[in-house]
Amino acid sequence: MELQPAINGEGALDSLRTAAKKLADKGSIRDEIVGGIYGVSAEICSSAVVYRDRKKLGSTYKLDNIVTSRVWGFPIMLAGLGLVFWITIAGANYPSSWLASLFSFIEGYLTAGFTALHAPAWLHGVLVLGLYRGTSSVISVMLPPMMIFFPVFALLENFGYLPRVAFNMDRLFKKSGGHGKQALTMSMGFGCNAAAIISTRIIESPRERMLAILTNNFVPCNGRWPTLILLSSMFMIGSAASGAFSTLATALVLMGIVLVGIAVTLTVSWVLSRTALRGVPTHYTLELPPYRRPQIFKTILRASKEKSLNVLTRAIVVAAPAGIITWILGNVMVSGDSVLNHMAAFFDPFASLLGLDGFIIMAFILGLPANEIVLPILLMGYMSSGAMVDIDGLGGIKDIFLGQGWTWLTALNMMLFSLLHYPCGTTLVNIYKETKSLKWAVLSAAIPLGIAVAVTFAVAQAARLLGWV
Amino acid sequence: MSKFTVAFAGNPNTGKSTLFNLLTGLRQHTGNWAGKTVITAEGEFTHNGHTYKAVDLPGTYSLYSNSADEEAARDYIIFEQPDVTLVVLDATSLERNLNLALQVLEITGRAVICINLIDEARRLGIEIDLKAIAKRLGVPVAAISARSEIGIKQLLDQIERVATGAVTAPPLRITYSEEIEQGIAELTPLVERTVGSRYPARWIALRLLDGDDSLLASLKEHMERKEAASSKEVLGHGVTACH
To answer: How many CA atoms, within 13 angstroms, populate the side-chain half-sphere of residue B142?
Structure first.
């Protein structure tokens, strides 16, 4: 008896729908509705808005004709990207090493304190060598580039340039079978893949939305920028290069990595839209909002506070326990060697096929919760197994890597693996929530992993075959 | 103590979030609405002793269920029925922005039109006759610049007037083509009978004519929830409802 109204209500809604369908089967209803609304808007504006100077309004169009032109669109985009990288690398170098020496200075006092209190060695190991070193290396390595990169990127965003990037990229995405808006969600991915997955809601068609979700991972996010920036500035540049030239070359390497990511995005979209996600791209209108003079000071403050600090907090929250776990793994001995070394040795044969080593694979596996911690885990792994090294800025980190037998190929392949491998845990959870399908969530990790393995394998084998390493 | 709810609607790139951040300051958090998992910001601000809960809806160009964002914004306005819906428009492209405002006003008259970036518009030599727009739309109109903090007090005054019921307006009536009007005329009584007077019948009829199945699905869901809620109320008869 109680349920009757509900059933009635549903039935009534269905009959309502039938009635509406019957009335509306004459076709272009939507056009007429939109026409009606637009008519009223136009009527209001014609009576209430006066344009004194139409020329001033035209300045936006003039700028757009250049930045979205077929000839200049891409060169301007690449130059802008290169400039952002250059500013980041040039600016982050010194503060990073200052922070690193500050932290190792403090570490000396912490160790002295533990000794004075006669604390057991394992406690000092877990808290200082594990927890403190782990978190402080995250801060010194990641904070300076983020404090520069995010505000600069936010300034470009506030100026209104990103929709133009989407406009330029639109043609490429359409050709690859995706939706033009995928260019926007991809740009979002440069910040955070997990957020970008949510932003794919702007894409209406489920097929195209899935393409955008599956390929979003191929642009480097906040968590991966520091790894890429650090590795490219340490390894990609010959020792002969110095000063401004080396900074420029590092920026170019980074740009190359980003372009590889975009190329993979387009290729995977192309392949998927011809196989598992077949279909024709839908049309859409992309609004190019007017340019606005960014409020420089506010933007910098907001970007620093919201992006840099948030990312850093997340990194520390995840890195702190990971530091402890890594230290324990590195110091619990089983038949003469640490657990960490056993695990690394297990992955080593496979890793060397990819031009990596067992520790790097371990770091990527342990780094699943957040990409931010891959590099710190790697450092902690190396440090706990080998001789203790005082990290004194970037040079010290490079020495640790060189001591583990790194070459430029190791660095390049780690960058490629970082760029192409599965997204972080948060992103995967978001993908599952958005698609409500375990199959697609698993695929969104499996496809990138497969590509990462294939690409690094090919690069490593080619480099060895050609005798470059 | 009464607390009013203000929903912030607007096209993307109108400075909606700038205004939201300005008003709510640091007192905001990311909320998750019931039903839909759209994450949006919620915050709080006070004006003249009234406290307002501010809800930042996703930036959309329309409420025609083209995407999950548009459905979420539409559902919030229709089903949560905020005390005030603040529609933020970009003064430099008013004609395009007004389309969303008109769609909101077709749903509810409890709205304030906020024309943002008025300083930018003045710089470009655009003059806007606020009184004429307010008269045509039937709801208060305020011109502001969120980034330069111009006109904020006046805007808050207008929000207060609508929230407290000092000004009331029926939903705006847009006259469509004869064919559509005929369809609306036939459907509206049916809609009223089915969903009751709580929801804007004319607008729902219009959307049904357009074949908006997602709206129908939302209606179904909310009516079932209402049903469940009211049967619970009957069960707990002895308990005093604190309304």
So the answer is: 24
